Amino acid sequence: MIEIKNLCKSFGDKVVLKDISTVFDSGKTNLIIGQSGSGKTVLMKNLVGLLTPTSGEVLYDGRDFVTMSKKEKVMMRREMGMIFQSAALFDSLPVLENVMFPLDMFSNMNYRERVRRAQECLDRVNLVDAEKKFPDEISGGMQKRVAIARAIALNPKYLFCDEPNSGLDPKTSLVIDDLLHGITEEFDITTIINTHDMNSVMGIGENIIFIYQGEKEWQGQSADIMGSTNKKLTDFIFASDLLKKMKESEMKEMKEKKKG
To answer: pLDDT class for 197, splitting at 50, 70, 90?
Structure first.
């Protein structure tokens, strides 16, 4: 479980996060949603230690990450997996070696054990046959699945995902959502996802935190969203849906023009 208490973050005179307190549940997919500039990315960076809060606590099973020593933070990060928006694979390494990278860096396994563990993770995301390919030889969706395999290689207790469906088509996005949700349940991981994808929110959002102008405006489950009377939340949800439909309409018109 991850708990944040009275978290604030400022950059000079600009206050970005204002007194946020919440709990991210273990074994659940916890989603952070909000408009661009709302502070959700800054919140995640504070959670993983890329930024230091101006004030407040970030508790990992009761341990305050903010006040840990440098050595303790390094040990703590070994319990974390991270999936970046761009997948962030190493172009010069084949898929298998990309997944092995955190094992090479942080594990005490011998080479044969590291290979076996990486293959197990690739099997979990249905990519064993791609282990010898390079990132530029596989699709964007497959790259995201490699990133998931790499993120779980060290058996993390906590999994952080920054816009994992960015740039993916709706069908592939569902595959990624199902994988993340399944892995979360299977390994009892505390998973936190930053997302704009409303299909993800409605499909796998077991604990959803809506950030508005740096403050926690609403928290609940996907089943609670449609019945919410919070105007800021409903405006965000329906605006997001409208923008998505507009984008799909534009793409359809472009395809029709090309055919013509």
So the answer is: confident
Contact 198, 85 (CB under 8 A): no
Q: Count CB neighbours of 36 within 10 A.
A: 7
* Rama region for 241: left / alpha / beta (φ>0; ψ in -120 to 50; rest): alpha
pLDDT tens-digit series, residues 120-169: 999 999 998 999 999 999 999 999 999 999 999 999 999 999 989 888 88
Condensed to tens digits (0 to 9), the pLDDT of residues 58-98 reads 999 999 999 999 999 988 988 999 988 777 899 999 999 99
Rounded Cα distance between 166 and 134, Å, is: 21
pLDDT of residue 258: 65
Mean model confidence pLDDT for the chain:
90
Amino acid identity for residue 100 in this structure? M
Instruction: Specify the number of domains making up the chain.
Output: 1
Task: Give residue 57's domain range.
Answer: 2-79+156-228
Give buried/exposed letters for 95-112 (b at 16+ CB in 10 A, else e).
bbbbbbbbbeeebeeeee
Q: What is the DSSP string of 140-178?
A: HHHHHHHHHHHHTTT--SEEEEESTTTT--HHHHHHHHH
Which CATH number belongs to the domain containing residue 215 in this structure?
Answer: 3.40.50.300
Beta bridge partners of 233: none
Instruction: Give the amino acid at 179.
Output: L
If you ran DSSP here, which 8-state letter would residue 252 be given? H
18 located within any domain: yes
Whether 247 is covered by a domain: the verdict is no
Full DSSP string of 103-119:
HHHH----HHHHHHHHH
C-alpha R_g of the chain: 19
